[in-house]
Amino acid sequence: MIEDLVLALRLQALDRKIAALDAEIATLPKHIAEIEKRLEAHTRRLEADRGALAANQRERKKLEGDNQLHEQKISKLREQMAAAKTNEHYKAFQNEIAYIEAEIRKSEDKILALMEQSEPLDKNVKAAEISLKAEQQQVEAAKVQARERTAIDKKELAEHATERKTVAAQMEPKLLTEYERVRKKTKNTPIADATDGRCNACQMGLRPQFFQDLRRQDKVMFCESCSRILTYNPVVDVVADTAATQQIA
Fold first, then answer.
1. Nearest Cα to 27, choosing from 162, 165, 205, 153?
2. How far, rounded to the nearest angstrom, does the alpha carbon of residue 247 sit from its chain's CA centroid?
């Protein structure tokens, strides 16, 4: 196999590695953002539960405070009732006391209902707090892991970029230009094998004479359909190229 074709295969392997690393580097922040978004949703639900529990407690406290005032008022009314000089005044005090006592009973019923409601709310808040704390720890661990992975990826990316420059510098300029043109058009697949007599990228069959010329491997040839650089039976190089593209998973 001619040297320029070997270099082109190596360049393709590097380009695929670089593309995979770029994709991973770009994906990691998005992954963290998705985790944080879920964490924010859980935090909002916890705050809603806390708000409901706090509202319940405020209402109970208000009702209990109102009942204390009612009790104080009843005490004063009883004092006034003891000094009543007519039956009408006495009955009026009795009626007012009865009304306030009825209000107290209503408040006590509401307090009992609120107490029943507060128990599951309190359990929900405590469970959510424990769950949120564990999730926050997971998010922080994921952030650390993402930063470490990104640092490794960037280092490897820089190494591949340097190696790519070296390989590209060794290629014949005209072939490099054509390689770059096809690479951009085909998303880092500028080379295809045609050992079976057809381009394995676009699946177009090769003309007999074209295929015979390709088998001689004395020049770089391009698919007449998709313009990719063609190889013939590049056993070692194709295996190396495949391994290179699978290295970043």
1. 153
2. 24
Strands (E), the chain: 191-193, 221-222, 229-231
User: For residue 205, how many C-alpha atoms fall within 13 Å in the half-sphere facing its CB?
Assistant: 3
Q: How far is the C-alpha of 16 from the C-alpha of 8, rounded, in Å? A: 12
Between CA 162 and CA 168 the distance in angstroms is 10
Residue 36 contacts by C-beta under 8 Å, 6 or more apart in sequence? Answer: 139
Please give the single-letter amino acid code of residue 57: Q
Within this chain, do residues 80 and 69 fall inside the same structural domain, yes or no? yes
The Cβ-side half-sphere exposure at 6, using a 13 Å CA radius, reads: 7
| Structural domain range at position 106 | 13-171
Count how many domains the chain has: 2
Query: What CATH number does residue 80 fall under?
Result: 1.10.287.1490
**Which residues touch 181 (CB under 8 Å, ≥6 apart)?**
227
Sign of CA dihedral 195, 201, 204, 210: negative
Is 231 contained in some domain?
yes
Q: With beta carbons less than 8 A apart as the criterion, state whether 121 and 48 touch.
A: no
At 177-224, the pLDDT tens digits run 999 999 999 989 999 999 999 999 999 999 999 999 999 988 999 999
> What DSSP designation does 206 have?
P
- Look at the pTM and tell me if it is higher than 0.85: no
56 contacts 120 by C-beta, under 8 angstroms: no
Bridge-partner residues for 198, per DSSP? 205
Give CA–CA dist 192/206, Å, rounded.
13
Contact 153, 24 (CB under 8 A): yes
